[in-house]
């Protein structure tokens, strides 16, 4: 069960249509596939999605930090020494996606070695999650049509609507159009990716007061410290901290400061080891949790559902597991399928992320 080698493979897969939101947009999934090899011939996998507009990481930077800093810190360790892995990776600041992919590939290898699924290793609560779909910026009619297509094709009835444009009426019109089209048939929440000021956020939430929203997420920056507290104190729905609360310490600070009342857990930035710590913290604090999406491909989405299904708290709300539907292709031999609004974990050991070698050859950028 000893780690012998870590590979960091850059790959690129285009999107069918770009996903646009207040802090950026994504046209091509330029991710990094991480493979952890062991002395028993087992290979664990995970993927790292660089999000420079959120965490400052780039694809080339993720490959470099994995090859030059993190791989030498874990080669030679047993797969069971997960706390040592965490302590060693934590010596380097930042680089959340690089650290997380390495951490999750180690858990995948451990699951395969022990012949149990990662979900069973973590908590084993259930084998599936309900899915929530993210709607990127567009005109109201196009976003309603997209929601109809997603509902009809996959049975998804929870939508996270990207907001944060100016004037705020651009976005409030979309949410109103969705509620008018679907009535009580769908659940809706909004994510501003820090695009509005606190005052704009308050005005937008007032305009949407009759639209029965589940949550509001990162409407304004957490760095607008007093404005954000003021906003959160006025709301009568949970306010989710996403990119402002990456580590358990960030979560503690944001919650104790009154700058958020719920959190998003994203395995792409906290792996399984740190996501466990964040889950336990949220459990202790009594927080609502949503399993978020860092615009993951299918390997990343498999990681999210594997973690989310592990605990009662993380599987209570629909998880954001469907961004891969916007990609033209992916790396898994057997593509993920969302049906009746649910995504089921893969049966068998580890993550069950068997790759298609031909697709990897085609999309990798290092050969
Ligand atoms: C989300 O929930 O914000 C978009 C930007 C990012 O950092 O993550 C995605 C989704
Ligand atoms: Mg968000």
Describe the structure.
- The protein has 15 helices and twelve strands.
- The chain has 367 residues and is of the alpha/beta class.
- The strands form two sheets. Strands 4, 5, 6, 7, 8, 9, 10, 11 and 12 form a nine-stranded mixed β-sheet that branches. The chain has a three-stranded antiparallel β-sheet with strand order 1-2-3.
- The structure holds [(2S)-5-oxo-2,5-dihydrofuran-2-yl]acetic acid (MUC) and magnesium ion.
- Belongs to the mandelate racemase/muconate lactonizing enzyme family.
- This is Mandelate racemase/muconate lactonizing enzyme family protein.
Brief sketch in words of this structure:
Helices cover 41% and strands 21% of the residues. With 367 residues, it is an alpha/beta fold. α3 packs antiparallel against α4.
State the oligomer. single chain
| Count of alpha/pi helices | 15
Helix/strand-derived class?
alpha/beta
What does the overall shape look like? globular
Mean pLDDT figure: 98
Order of helices and strands: EEEHHHHHEHEHEHEHEHEHHEHHEEH
The CATH superfamily name of the largest domain is Enolase-like C-terminal domain
The CATH topology of the largest domain comes to TIM Barrel
| Tally of distinct domains | 2
Family: Belongs to the mandelate racemase/muconate lactonizing enzyme family.
Organism: Amycolatopsis silviterrae
Domain Mandelate racemase/muconate lactonizing enzyme C-terminal: 140-238
Keywords: Isomerase, Metal-binding
